Amino acid sequence: MTTPGSPPYDFLIIGAGVIGCALARELARFNLRVGVVEQYHDVGDGTSKANSGILHTGFDAKPGTLESRLVREGRELWQAAAPALGVPIDPVGAVMLAVTDEQVGLLDGLLATARKNGGTDVQMLTRDEVCARVPAANPAVQRGLWVPRESLTCTFTTVIALAEHAAVNGVQFHFGRRVTAIERDADGYRVRAEGDEFRTRWLVISGGLWSDDLARMTGRDDFTITPRKGEFLVLDKSARAQVPHILLPVPTPISKGILVAPTINGNVLMGPTADDIEDKRDLGVTADGLRRVRSGALQLAPGLADEPVVATYAGLRTAGASNYLIEVDPAKQIVLAAGIRSTGLSSALAVAREISGRLAEAGVTLREKAEGMQPRPTRAWMAGQPRPCLDAERVAQNPAYGYIICQCESVSEGEIIEALHSPLGIISLDAIKKRTWANTGRCQGFYCTAATLQIMARETDLPLDALTKRGPGSELLAPVASQKGN
Asked: What's the pTM value of the predicted model, to 2 decimals?
């Protein structure tokens, strides 16, 4: 019960990436008032949306580190939660390819690391065994490392599922609200964002690349996050048969290197590069970056050289000295979850559970709701079921599911309408893309964008120019971009 003059939130989470949304869902289990403030107009619109979509086992993490433990725990939590959340997981396994003598010399150490991390099923492969598993593998491959539990998932659906599950259980999301100031008073914190003010007892900083800037608003300046750009190529679905498993290079001191991986929706992904930059909004692809992606990927699978490219993109991930900086400060009533690198997708549920555990240890009262958690409404096709247009009974009940808008991905009008009325109430072309895969196919939206926008305008009564705006400070979207929890 809110007392007069008390902050409206017990916890205000800044940042709606995979970590922020996982924590929102975790806190939704308890009798707490929880809010999420996000500068973009959808969840997972920063670092999270450019993840490679791999659910890692943590076999190659530094043994004994917090990252190693949380990645392993997180994967197990995802396996348990995915069916109810409607999150797809495909355990295709991964093969690390050693092509040079130097790389071969590193495999024994990587196998030993995997063993220390609990990877008892990780195995060394001979050249012939690698070639038998991966038809497209470089003929020069000498040895390989088989990691059977590495899995594919959807980098979009994971974040959306966590956020929607939190929303239907009372968490309030506020989109298009870039935080500009944080002040502490006797009752907690006042957070100013795009002209609005939010009050909260506890502040949670989970802003991805911006976590260091947010921390400085609270007076803390002891860590810096550097953006690391990764550029990607997406191949047409015709390449999928050649890549039955995730293909990993032997890692370098800088990054895990450029991989080749099937995606959950049937394409093949190449990338990423690893370039430390300064601009936290620089998502541009470059000719040099794409050249390096192609060159590195073809070192693993030269047979993909003639496969058509259907998309290119770049993402930014966190880099810097601070890695997995997770803290709960009961004196200042601040939670910090920063410096969580590309393994954050895999570890997200474990990070959230770690934070709630530390809050309990710090004396914060966390009483679980007597009624439990309400389920999240799922879209079955993304969890491995056929598209609605292939379900005759469903089409008979609602003909909109039989009217195909996106021919490349078989997305129907009914699915677009369903996405528009989902729990977060998101309204943007990009949001529809992430929820239905419309505009992601071979034509990259050439044929379906106009029809998708017409459906959105009809369903929302918003002008077309409002529906195409994205990013912080979009005034047209701001009035409809706050989702109020139940």
From this structure: 0.92
